[in-house]
Amino acid sequence: MVPKVYLTAYQLRVETIFKACSNYLIEQLNEHNCL
Q1: Where are the beta strands (DSSP E) in the chain?
Q2: What are the tens digits of pLDDT across the range 4-34?
Q3: Which domain holds residue 2?
Q4: pTM exceeds 0.85 for this model
Q5: Rounded to an integer, what distance in angstroms lies between the CA atom of residue 26 and that of residue 21?
Q6: Domains of the chain: total
């Protein structure tokens, strides 16, 4: 069994990376739209 704390930390890390990637993609799209 994997400890719950480890699972929670992993989930938070995945969400953080996902949000960072989403923000990056949105910024890239906005730059293209401005051009």
Answers
A1: none
A2: 999 999 999 999 999 999 999 998 888 776 6
A3: 1-35
A4: no
A5: 9
A6: 1
